[in-house]
Amino acid sequence: MTHIQSFTFNALAENTYILYDETGEAIIIDPGCYDKREKEELVGFIDQNKLKPVKLLNTHAHVDHVLGNAFVKRQYGIELYLHESDLPVLHSVKVMAPYYGIMAYEETEVDQYLVAGETVTFGHSELEVRFVPGHAPGHVAFVSHADRFVIGGDVLFRGSVGRTDFPLSDFDTLATSIRTQLYTLPDDYVVYPGHMGSTTIGQEKRSNPFVRAVN
Fold first, then answer.
1. Which of 47, 83, 128, 210 is deepest in the core (most CB within 10 A)?
2. Domain Metallo-beta-lactamase: where (predicted)?
3. How high is the pLDDT of residue 215?
4. Closest CA to 43 of 11, 9, 13
5. What's the per-residue H, E or C state across the chain?
6. What are 1-41's pLDDT values in tens digits?
7. CA 184 distance to own-chain centroid
8. Among candidates 27, 40, 80, which has minimal Cα distance to 58?
9. Residue 118: CB partners within 8 Å, gap ≥ 6?
10. Which of these, 147, 142, 156, 148, lies nearest to 17 by C-alpha position?
11. pLDDT computed for residue 214 by the predictor
12. Nearest Cα residue to 157 out of 113, 191, 183, 115
């Protein structure tokens, strides 16, 4: 069984996730840890639970989701995975970060590209990679069919969806991604988003005011 631990980091209240199973192997998704306290909180949980991080994944590369990339790579000697289409977003962070009052952003390079339809494995667990652009051009979601959940980044929220007023964002593309890649999952799948609390596929299909399911 895959366990999920979430942290809310940085001034933009971004959700960072650690996933791990009974083997002790773990993956870190969207490390938004920026200051010393946040980094210590992340490392403290890993140490306390005797976990072994083996991969670092980004759902997408907006500034609040990548602030801890360099720290995590250095701390654990692991590779960073990102969809290739989001490289322009990642490369723009050094320019965008100061606009958010972030002056100490540390760049790092992508080591492996995520590909739609492939699986990410750790321990006895695996996640399907689904391509869900719109909020960002290379946005992906990670789906556990065994444990019936989605790590969705900034695509689908409880009663909302990801913003599309950023450069390289597009609402129609986002809506198509949600309908074809997320709303096609069973209703009981839990969505763990990049901000705010969790929801379910069924709840959003029924009541999300921005993207309704097509019957």
1. 83
2. 13-195
3. 60
4. 9
5. CCEEEEEEECCCCEEEEEEECCCCEEEEECCCCCCHHHHHHHHHHHHHCCCEEEEEECCCCCHHHHCCHHHHHHHHCCCEEEEHHHHHHHHHHHHHHHHHCCCCCCCCCCCEEECCCCEEEECCEEEEEEECCCCCCCCEEEEECCCCEEEEECCEECCEECCCCCCCCCHHHHHHHHHHHHCCCCCCCEEEECCCCCEEHHHHHHHCCCCCCCC
6. 999 999 999 999 999 999 999 999 999 999 999 999 999 99
7. 19
8. 80
9. 128, 129
10. 142
11. 73
12. 191
Q: Look-up: residue for tokens 């597009």?
A: 170
Length of the chain counted residue by residue = 215
CATH superfamily of 3-207: Ribonuclease Z/Hydroxyacylglutathione hydrolase-like (3.60.15.10)
Query: 197-214: per-residue pLDDT in tens?
Result: 999 999 999 999 999 987
Q: Which residue type does 53 have? A: P
Beta-strand relationship, 52-57 and 80-83 = parallel
